[in-house]
Write a structure and sequence with these properties.
About 45% of the residues lie in helices and about 15% in strands. It is an alpha+beta fold. The protein has a five-stranded mixed beta barrel with strand order 1-2-3-5-4. A hairpin with a 2-residue loop joins strand 2 and strand 3. About 5% of the residues have low confidence.
């Protein structure tokens, strides 16, 4: 299975690129949020070196492999949660991701179906399915600053892990991150995983801003 590709940009089309890596040209579908980060090639220029984290899709009904590329592993992580929703397959999700991921995640957490309906190919019924499936599971992504992309941080203490992600990857200062985590644990001392803690931090921020 292909999980990562790095190579020269040979061709950029409306919804995909062709990347030359080790003498092989790979066709990679890109959501709009990724496509807009790829600069067009100028005549006579060699292809720039690009790299993508890959979601590899192949099924019995669709034996031809489809590669879907992301600039960051966290984008891929959100995508893979998104396609767990009934009626949203990988190809539908590629077309739908036209809004920043934190905006989509916030809409899910806040049951904002109108924002979700602004995604390409998502109607009211599908928006309701997205909320029913993912609400309470994507608070981590709603915390993303749009100019910051989270990366994986491996820390044994899950509270410290959340603080590290808030600071290094989501754009918060350490003092602020520690305060958010401390207050979240006071509200719910039964939290035992990073995912639960991210959700409680998000709920706390939402309550403070309302």
């Amino acid at each position: 299975m292909i999980r990562y590709i790095e190579g020269k940009l040979l061709k950029k089309e409306e919804d995909r690129v062709v990347i030359l890596a080790n003498g092989v040209g790979y066709e990679i579908l890109l959501p709009a949020i990724v496509r807009k980060t790829i600069q067009p090639r100028k005549a006579g220029e060699d292809g720039e070196v690009v790299k993508f984290y890959i979601h590899y899709h192949q099924t019995e009904r669709q034996p031809k492999p489809t590669l879907i590329g992301f600039n960051y592993e966290t984008e891929k992580e959100f995508f893979e949660k998104f396609i767990t929703v009934e009626d949203i397959g990988p190809l539908t999700a590629v077309k739908a991701l036209v809004q920043p991921i934190p905006k989509i995640a916030k809409a899910i957490e806040e049951r904002d179906s109108k924002t979700l309906e602004s995604l390409k190919g998502v109607g009211r019924r599908t928006a309701d399915k997205i909320i029913a499936t993912l609400q309470g599971k994507v608070g981590k992504f709603a915390l993303m600053r749009e100019d910051q992309i989270p990366i994986e941080v491996e820390v044994v203490d899950f509270k410290r892990q959340v603080e590290e992600v808030l600071v290094r990857d989501l754009g918060h200062k350490m003092g602020e991150a520690q305060k958010l985590v401390y207050e979240a644990m006071l509200r719910n001392p039964n939290i035992s995983t990073p995912e639960e803690l991210f959700e409680e931090v998000y709920r706390g921020q939402k309550g403070a801003s309302s």
